[in-house]
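Side project, low priority. Logging it here so it doesn't get lost.
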Amino acid sequence: FLKHKAVQVVALIAKREWPHQWPSLFNELTSLSQHSDAHCEIVLLVLGEMGEGLFSDDKMSDGRRNELLVALHAEFPALFTFTYKVLEDNFVRYQQAPDSTVRQRSYRLVSAALKAFEAYAPLASLAVLCQCGVLNAVHALLGAEELRENALDVLLVISAKKAKDAPPDVFGSFTLSLLNMCEAGLLKETDYSVHKRLCQILKDIGCNHWYALMPPAVSGAPPVAAAQLPEVVIKLLRLMAAFANYEGLVVPNITTEFWRAMLDSPLPGGARGAVVVLPEGVREQLLGAVLDKVTNKPKTEPDGGDAEDFEDFDDYLRLWGQVKAKVLEMSRKLACAETVGCLHFVGSHWHQLLSEAHERGAEGAPKRSPAEIDVWDHRVEG
């Protein structure tokens, strides 16, 4: 409690006095951090407290806020270098130290460093964030169960940034490594809570930073063929299609925004449509997700066994209705983008349903179409 209050006081003074009345602030904090682990933790907490809520502080004038932002931008390279060094050194010590007391101190320092990155990520450019190594740190920390939640918090903030200034080579490589990690076992090792946040992160990467994953489209050119897609794009599309089939409602609901961006985006020349031709199997997964979400009432327990967050049953039914509407809209956009493939999928399902009805002893078509046929009937008409 006392440590928290002390951090708040120093951060409030810094917001009022720095840089004009306290120009040596960061040098003093850096020097203080070298005294002990406890001092270093307090310094990181002060830095995080300074950056946190800078835009939401209603007691700060716009002029003062802009002044602080300009001063912070000048300090970001040194600030991030210091924070990354503390994070790197203490993560190594956390992994290797046999003494539980040392491990606990290292854990607190790594957590404090991540909190500082989380506070400043909305304020810094993606170019600076990529340059300082924070993406590499997050990637390493995702493999540590005790620190994974903090790493995901940082990544959620970074992926949600709208600015299109991420270096494609660095950001694209990081995204590919994240997808490879999911493929190699991260999803199997974790539960619904992690899956939901990973889905949100990948959705934001696709919607906000597609430019870093794909070369820019040429005006008048057709969508990029599946065989010509970069590996990172193929893996992203396949994983987001798998998330669309996720049991429950919240995760598939997140994916609908991603697929809206993929299937109905502004194209060069003023048209709208799909940005790429979908890789093999993705279309079928998406159409299967439409069938599942529209015709089957989803379970209240998603994959992994963790209950989704609903205040009451009415809230649950309300979201189900929203998801049904969104996936039907997704199927319409998919049918416009890949008409022939969608018709093949519908035809095969119709044939399967009628064959099953015939095997059960029905003469010809069933008097009342199964829900699957009802779903696709208006898709074919469209």
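Brief comment: The mean pLDDT is 87.
Revisit when time allows.
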